[in-house]
Specification:
Layout (H helix, E strand, L loop, with lengths): L9 H33 L3 H9 L1 H22 L3 H36 L6 H24 L2 H25 L12 H29 L10
Helix pairs in contact: 1-2, 1-3, 1-4, 1-5, 2-4, 3-4, 4-7, 5-6, 5-7, 6-7
Length: about 220
């Protein structure tokens, strides 16, 4: 994320830099876990799922630290204007990154359950959806780092394609004509729902970038 400008209070810059560093680190960790998810599902790989699950709480603690640091900056420095929007952006993204970690961990848990029961993970359905969700989140994290509002608006448009793919995946999973699926795997329904939620999270992060740069709220589908 682009470093904040120099302020009269050096402690203020240090506080903003500390938040920015944590946000970037959490985004990086989430992307690594999403890469592991591809191996979990295509493998299938229970060990990879276990690694994601084990790292869930430590990474959640990192996001809680982001929120705590944001609250401290608001209380101590009382930022205004673009500085206030910057801190609010960090705070909103901290919330969303926490949600994203929960979705990623949930996917790992449901994939592990399917592997244990020797249920099909339907890679032909799940992997394309995973690729779309990861791509959207990766680009949202990049927009947050570069503060690129135009690219952020593009991500919100791309999320409509992920929503459409999610609906199609659901329809395929419950289709009685689908071969090699003797019974409905409920874990898969949770997995594809979480992938759709990751796209929603990326869309919200993109909206915070527009809010940061233009003081415009586009979270609900129209600019205000």
């Amino acid at each position: 994320m682009t470093p904040p400008g120099n302020h009269i209070l050096p402690h203020y810059d240090a506080a903003l830099n500390a938040i920015r560093t944590r946000v970037n680190a959490v985004c990086g960790s989430l992307l690594k876990h999403m890469d592991v998810l591809e191996r979990v599902i295509s493998g299938p790989d229970s060990d990879g799922a276990n690694g994601i699950i084990a790292d869930g709480e430590p990474l959640s603690e990192e996001t809680r630290q982001v929120l705590s640091l944001c609250a401290a900056v608001l209380t101590q420095f009382h930022p205004l204007g673009s500085d206030l929007r910057l801190v609010l952006t960090f705070s909103r993204c901290g919330d969303k990154l926490q949600e994203c970690m929960e979705e990623v961990t949930g996917i790992a848990r449901h994939a592990k359950a399917s592997i244990r029961r020797r249920e099909s993970l339907c890679t032909d359905i799940v992997l394309p959806l995973l690729d779309m969700a990861v791509s959207e989140f990766r680009d949202a994290a990049r927009c947050l780092e570069t503060q690129d509002a135009d690219a952020a608006r593009e991500i919100r448009l791309r999320d409509k394609k992920l929503d459409k793919a999610h609906r199609k995946a659901l329809a395929l999973l419950v289709s009685p004509e689908r071969e090699n699926t003797p019974s409905l795997n409920v874990n898969l329904l949770f997995i594809i729902r979480s992938l759709e939620r990751i796209g929603d999270i990326a869309k919200t992060i993109a909206a915070t970038v527009v809010f940061l740069k233009e003081a415009t709220d586009i979270r609900h589908g129209k600019e205000k």
